[in-house]
Amino acid sequence: MTAFLRLGVPLALVAGFLSGCAGVPERQLDRALAAQEARESQLRAVTEWGLRGRIAVHSSRQQGSGSIAWQTAPGSLRFELSAPVSRQSWVLIADADGARLQGLEEGERLGSSAGALLREAFEWEVPIESLAFWVQGARAPGKANVLLDVDGRPRQIDQDGWRIEYREWVQVDGLSLPRKVFAEQGPNRLRLVVDGWKLGPAS
Q1: Which structural domain range is residue 121 located in?
Q2: Quick check: is 201 in a domain?
């Protein structure tokens, strides 16, 4: 069973619309909505988290893949990329003062945002600020269309022209988090496989 949500509206207000969807038992629908509501509440309480895994990014002009280590805290993020073939590594740091990218041949580069720096340095069209929500299986601020699975987890999110699909989930400290995330917007594609999650400050 898949339920459809148009978020930007409280989940409780959507239930009446969803109950009219063909083939969706109301009891299952209520459980899915309640599960997602509880999950979103748990995610909002997690102010610091990290992940490590593997990422592949394709655009109309560039593509790349490698390992990733990502740490997020209130108002800041640290994004480390390593390319296995060239053995190069880059560190992207963003906070209230802007963003900086380290590891480039020409030296450190500064920018207004993490997404802008990735676009300038690698020609990657990746909305890092929104991706920080999507990788958790949550919508970024603003309107979004969400498909839920029977367990109340997002199966697909459509937001800001991007389609994000969730292929696999894991349990971390009692919270369902994505293991495989596929995102696409026209020629821009991103594939993320998470090998490990950490909820809380970096150790």
Answers
A1: 49-53+61-131
A2: no
d(CA 140, CA 134): 7
171: in domain: yes
Has residue 199 been placed in a domain? no
As given in the structure block, the two tokens for residue 58 are 């394709």
Residues 147-185: pLDDT tens digits? 888 788 899 999 999 999 999 999 999 899 999 999 999
Its pTM stands at 0.83
Q: For the sheet with 175-185, list strands across it.
A: 3-7, 144-148, 154-159, 162-172, 175-185, 188-199, 49-58, 63-73, 76-82, 89-95, 98-102, 109-111
Tokens of 125: 């069209």
Look at the chain and report how many structural domains it folds into. Answer: 2
